[in-house]
Amino acid sequence: MNLMPFAPELLLLLGSLLLFFFTLRGDDKGARAIAIVLGLASVLLALATVHERGNLFYKAYQIDLFSQLFKVLIAIATTCVLLFGRELKDISPRMQPEYYLFLILSSLGLMMLVSSVELITLFVALELSSFSLYLMVPMRDDRRGLRTQMEAGIKYIMFAVMATGIMLFGMSYLFGLTGSTYLADIAPRLGHLLKEPAAVIGIAMVLAGFLFKLAVFPFHFWVPDVYQGAANETTSFIASVPKLGAVALLIRITMLAAPHNQAIVGMLVIFAVCSMFYGNLSALAQKDLKRMLGFSGIAHAGFVLLGLLTFQQQGYATSIFYIAGYVLMNMACFLVLCKVSKTGENVEIADLAGLYKRSPLMAFTLAVGMMAMAGIPPFVGFMGKFMLMAGALQAKHLTLVILAALNTAIAIYYYLSVLKVAYCDTPASDEALEVDFTTALVSLALIAGIITLGVIPSQLLDLANRAVASLL
Amino acid sequence: MDFLVMHQGLPLLSALIFLPLAGAVIGMFLPSESSARVWALLVTIANALLSIPLYTGFDLSTAKFQFGEHHPWIPIWHINYTLGVDGISLLLILLTTLIMPFCVLASWRYIARRVKAFMVCLLVMECAMIGVFAALDFVLFYVLWEAMLIPMYLIIGIWGGPRKVYASIKFFIYTLAGSVMLLVSIIALYLNSAPHTFSIPALMGGNYSTTFQILVFLAFFLAFAIKVPMFPFHTWLPAAHVEAPTAGSVILASILLKMGTYGFLRFCLPITPVATLTLMPYVLWLSVAAILYGGFTALAQKDMKKLIAYSSVGHMGFVTLGIFVLNSRGVEGAILQMINHGVTTGALFLCVGMIYERTHSRELATATGIGKQMPIFVTFLAFFSLSSLAFPGTNSFVGEFLVLAGSFSRNLLITACAIPGAILAAAYMLRMLQKVIWGGVDNPKQSLIDLNGREIVTLAPFLLFVFWIGLGPTPFLAVMHASVNHLLSQVSLAAHSTAIGMLP
After folding, report:
1. Of B143, B158, B173, the CB nearest to A377
2. How does pLDDT run across B113-164, given as a tens digit for each residue?
3. How far is it, in rounded angstroms, from Cα B491 to Cα B329?
4. CB distance A458–B74 less than 8 Å?
């Protein structure tokens, strides 16, 4: 068996075994070094295996352009979190080796998830990634004695188990209808059954599991509390990397309902509109930066659905483009958040006052991230929104597009308010914010990525198009 | 590509757009704050010199877009990087490039902290503004149109006056909210064109249904009317003007406001002609409302910047009036008036900035009687004020006269209602002049220094243009004839095919 296509996953698997030994020794510095090396190496390996093709484990595990593209994105995002969140300010050194172990395992789970084309494999991969996250959330120091991280952990696991349960139930329907757990077999057999309510319900229920990961409207309840309760670095990870996996699987599952299923489309339209309005309107009222980013993430998830519900290759490709851009801009904001937080405490929007004087680079990174999320050109957020709206309008969803456009106008207010605080308010202390070299490098790379994808989106878009075409 | 005359040799328009951007990028890495001033001045002057071949090489005989450039940008969505100028945009580009060095000069001492960042913002603004006037692809246009908001927001928000936060956020949200529907209608136009295209000239004269045209027109109108600003959408303007630093006010008044009226000319008239004809009366009455409202409000102001800001509302009312009377005199007058307003109001804001640097106040009351101390300054101020109230012999007279002449042949009643606006302009401008020059000698601040060499150099070219356009407007009008006639023929073609009656 040629293991080369499987190399990034193998690397992370072996790496996590190595990390396990570090947890026994309690060596936090060593674990950190190993984790960062693993991250960087996984990026390189993922890039090297982009054009690999093949399948493993009796065709339950498929390596194609689609999965490899997502693996590259997951590896890059994980490495970013590892690099700018090196300090793990709010996680006690005793816990840190375990923390890194679970982070790498979660990343591994997501990489396996995007390659899974069989329901049970898919479920196992998803759980590997999720269970690691359930453990990472409560690992925060209980310095303030409020135990909010425990609350967050419990809420996360409860909602997640619920969503997973629904998903499994849905899978049983799909299996019952088609007699197979392979997506490749389910799709053709489901074709003529799509008018049956059981098929629609089955697909909808499977979608629920991933809509939960993406934090789309009726499955979003965990977002604000988990974001707030988890350590800043953990939130950076949860807010970005699992969403990549979620979009990948949403694309695979919605394709089952293709070419056109009014019930699923209608459901997604409603979810998209509710997500956008709920996310943006709630974000308006937030004082805590992480909660605000959480609600804005719900709104962005609604935008991603705009591409999925077109059921067309271009729409799917735009969704991939948008989520990749979203991860970049989200990373930029969380990078600033992690740096501004002195001891790992949560950051209120007011704490950003005068950031421009304390660290021009951090303020600029925040500005680029926020403006990109608000959808102002020349950043990637604009290109993504523009193409999603164009695609949705092409699929005759005029009302949806108008509502989405209105949401862009609502959202600008809270993004701008954050920038106002960072650029116009006077800081509580004039103390300069030290930014280490690596973080500065990561933030410059993120800015460059956000602008480059916004100005020349063609390459990534072409790649995403070919990736989706390889599925159809 | 039959609408585009491709440019051979150096891509002039791209150079004009990217030179300031490159200047901004290099400016970020300059070692000292004072070198940033000199650098920004050099870049803007180089850009101004670079733009002169646009005028000398412009072919007066054709309505096609000249100096054309065309490259694919995002092939999947048929988005191209298309640039070109015609008689409508030529003067606006020249206005932009020529006015930017003076914005840098006006900020020489006015901006004391974070000079480097300010200059970078100015240069990025210049890049986006030239791009907006030169873009012939809708997406390219929209990208630059929106991208401009960020540097302008920072210019007001960081270097502005006491209420800068309120003013900058209001400016940003107003403009952005206005343009989101513009984006939707751009996509709708794309989907309604066959073959699908975002090319602006290719979308002109398309066969769209009346309902569709009216919806698109309204979306366009909202975006552009906010930018102009037209009467009910003007409230962001006084706030932004008052709080912005001098250079910000000049850019806002001279160039940003023109983008709204440019939008009407470039998009509303040729792309949705039927809707334009249907909705023309309402727009005309809104223009009249703006003229009168701006005039009366300006009359009541105590703050000089606010006074000029409200006068802008009135002056821009004349411009929209001229555009929507839809005859060649009106439209040419409107375009000339856009340039005039850029020159005159820009200069007036510079003058107010110079007073502010000395007295740290923009109140009329504290600026009374400075004529005695600053004779050179009040000479300039007097000429610019006369130009602003359209005194014969100055530039605005020509523009306003053409607009009113055009409007006269369209509708007597509307013209009659607009004419008091001209009288109001005389009233508020003379009121300001009178206070500033002869307003009594009891002003406690009696030790003001007159203009220095840099300030005289800043104002003198504006005066040159005031009289040049006022006494010999032919070279300015000549460049727009072909394009304006072409534009009006596009509108009247639609009028004939749908047989919509002209104004009641």
Report:
1. B143
2. 888 889 999 999 999 999 999 999 999 999 999 888 889 998 998 888 888 8
3. 15
4. yes
Name the one residue in this structure whose structure tokens are 């302008």.
B152
Give which of B159, B239, B23, B182 is closest to A386, Cα–Cα.
Answer: B182
In chain B, the residue whose alpha carbon lies closest to the alpha carbon of A413 is: B173
Residue range A278-298, pLDDT digits in tens: 999 999 888 899 999 999 999
Contact call for residues A287 and A348 (beta carbons, < 8 A)? yes
Of residues A340, A348, A270, the one with CA closest to residue A305: A270
Domain segments of chain A as ranges? 4-469
- Lowest pLDDT segment from A6-10, A145-149, A343-347, A373-377: A145-149
Let me know how long chain B is: 504
B150 and A371 within 8 Å at the Cβ level: the answer is yes
Q: Comparing C-alpha atoms, which of B159, B130, B364, B316 is closest to residue B246?
A: B159
Identify which of B73, B164, B187 has the shortest CB distance to residue A393. B187
| Residues composing chain A | 472
pLDDT score at B290 = 92
User: Strands B79-85 and B65-74: what pairing?
Assistant: antiparallel
**Distance (Å, rounded) from C-alpha A117 to C-alpha A119?**
7
Query: A195, A256 in Cβ contact below 8 A?
Result: no
| Tens of pLDDT, residues B208-235 | 888 899 999 999 999 999 988 888 888 8
pLDDT of residue A229: 87
The two tokens of residue A148 are 């909010």
- Nearest to B330, CA basis, from B491, B439, B463, B186: B491
Both tokens of residue A400? 């949806």
Q: How far is residue B76's CA from residue A15's CA, in Å, rounded to a whole number?
A: 41
How much of chain A, in percent, has pLDDT values that exceed 70? 99
